[in-house]
Hints:
It contains 9 helices and 19 strands. It is an alpha/beta fold. The protein has a 5-stranded parallel beta sheet with strand order 5-2-7-8-9, sandwiched between helices. Strands 10, 11, 12, 15 and 16 form a 5-stranded antiparallel beta sheet that branches.
Amino acid sequence: MEVFYDFFCNFAQNNRVMKKKKFWKLFIFGCITAICIYSYLHFFRKSLLEGHKVVVCIPVYGQSLALGEEAIRVTDFERLKNDYNGRILTENLDYEFGCFDNSKWKQSLKKLFHYHKRSFELSIYGMAEALAQQLGNDTVICIFPGGQGTTLIAQLSKPEAPYMRLISDIQTAYEKARDKNWEFYVPAICWMQGESDIAEYSNTDYKTLLKQFSKDINQDIKEITHQDVPVNFISYQTNAITRGKMFDANNFKCKEIAVPQALMELVRDDSLFWPSGPIYPYSFAREAVHLDGASQKLLGQLAAKSAIRIIRHQKPIAGLIPLNPVIDNNNIILPFAIPYPPLVFDTINVNKIDNYGFNVITPDGKDIISSVILEDSIVRISCLQSPIGCKIRYAINGEIMKSGNQHGPRGNLRDSYQYWCYQFESALKTKDPTGSTQ
């Protein structure tokens, strides 16, 4: 027994010596690695900014389109950093763009190792570049994505995990700005959500839920930043109506239009909602759900037009939105609020569709439209019978499961700039003495 005891004692002692040597090797290697990482973080990624700054923070929030899924990146991160004197930053007020992950520790690892394998194009890159060109050198643009793919609006709202991550990121940005004695506020959030609520037939009141989200986010952000100005919403309009399995363009009670209609009405009627616009004029990856990289950038540039007006406290541009239609026998005269006249039927950027995207649907599911003519600021629609009791629609069409400007739900009407007409539905009920529908 003593022999065995001595053997194990000697083995343990030798093992401890080996472990001690191995430990010191690992310790020295770890110290060198830590010094290298520290040097990289604090020297090679050092902020280019000096002096007092005002930080305008505009994140994008929603589901997979907000996160740029499938959008091959066209923005060069080094240029995003250097071309604007370092004035475009992330929520950490650094230049580690493209490292989003639902898991905070995974996101930290991506930043640490500069991992950009799943780094997609985001609309806020194009928006930030446009803002940096228009704002002074004392203004910093803080951008980052938030949200979660394939998620209903209810699951993105307070107190769900994606919402709390967004608030946490804003808190982080605010505290880092305060440490530098910089001013900080959130003038707006870019909203990109709605696909899941259409495809899954959530049967919720989307407009009410989004207005509640707006109320919650305003309250929670103001508690952090103590800002007096409201947090506005720069909203797109989802194009995913044909992803609903029951979609029928001639169905008088088309459920799939509810979400795009709500987004249009909020931009039209609520002063907190500003347009980036409908997305049917753009190209999509595989013509499916997600905008491609070039389209994300174009949408961001349009969002910047709203963002700059919010920052400068200017009047909003609601986008190209229909006004009250007028019925004249079998004709409908449809006026528009036009940001940049005149109106145009564009069949180059958007593949032409019957009647330029307009339909007049009867209660029994027939399209009675016969022709569509553009006259200055109005669209004149002729019908085969009286349209009273029908619904006039625009861009409620397209091939099943398709999106975008080739075969998705679309129309050809735009103004002379980049504002395309929103997808919409309007009931033609009765006529008042002036001819306007009620």
